[in-house]
TrEMBL record:
SMART domains linked: SR
Alphabetical keyword list: Disulfide bond
Keyword Disulfide bond: yes
GO cellular component: plasma membrane
Highest taxon above the source species: Eukaryota
GO molecular function, one term: serine-type endopeptidase activity
Protein name: SRCR domain-containing protein
Pfam family, one: SRCR
GO terms of biological process kind: zymogen activation
Disulphide-bonded residues: C67-C77, C126-C190, C139-C200, C170-C180
């Protein structure tokens, strides 16, 4: 998935890693995975047929998972008998958690161009109106200390892919960038020469 907080869900059972079938897979199930991995909140519960994270291999251990959302581990959720299903790996479930932000091309994990993961694809954030309040939220989410700088216009080089967020307006108190207001996707308003960046103190 490109980060430890997004990808195909795999579970270890009887000493072997296997996947989870996407039958009845939903946000409650994804929330438990994100909590277990200490990856924040669930942003998306992905069906295998969307193909975001590709097919796995080995056993398909879990099917018809029915978490209530409060469990501390996926194995504590109700599900069909382990290893019993009629699924193929084209139905492997995936998750994107809120801690799906990274800083690229800055020489450390706490400095660089801001990139966010949405719909299984990494993209950038438009630097127009990007400020220290926005940068502070990114630094907090990445556990990188305080925001030192919030360069707006491609300071860390142009990214590629979608420009997922335009017109970001954080108050500075949010715990994750995904909680900040924005206009959403915006290639029509912005280009990668304006990609936002952050330098954190950590």
């Amino acid at each position: 998935g490109g980060s430890r907080c997004a990808g195909r869900v795999e579970v270890l059972h009887e000493g072997q890693w296997g996947t989870v079938c996407d039958d009845d897979w939903d946000e409650d199930d994804a929330a438990v995975v994100c909590r277990e991995l200490r990856c924040g909140e669930a942003v998306d519960a992905l069906d295998g047929d969307k193909g975001h994270f590709g097919p796995g291999s080995g056993p398909i251990w879990m099917n018809k998972v029915a978490c209530n959302g409060s469990e501390t581990a996926l194995k504590n959720c109700r599900s069909a008998e382990w290893g019993v299903n009629n699924c193929g790996h084209d139905k492997d479930a995936g998750v994107t958690c809120s801690d799906s932000v990274r800083l690229m091309n800055g020489g450390s994990r706490c400095a660089g161009r801001v990139e966010v993961l949405q719909e299984g694809q990494w993209g950038t954030v438009c630097g127009v109106d990007w400020d220290e309040d926005d940068a502070a939220v990114v630094c907090r989410e990445l556990r990188c200390g305080e925001a030192v700088n919030a360069p707006q216009y491609g300071h860390f080089g142009p990214g590629s892919g979608p420009i997922w967020m335009v017109g970001v307006r954080c108050s500075g108190s949010e715990s994750i960038l995904n909680d900040c207001e924005s206009y959403g996707r915006g290639e029509q308003y912005c280009n990668h020469g304006h990609d936002a960046g952050v330098t954190c103190s950590g």
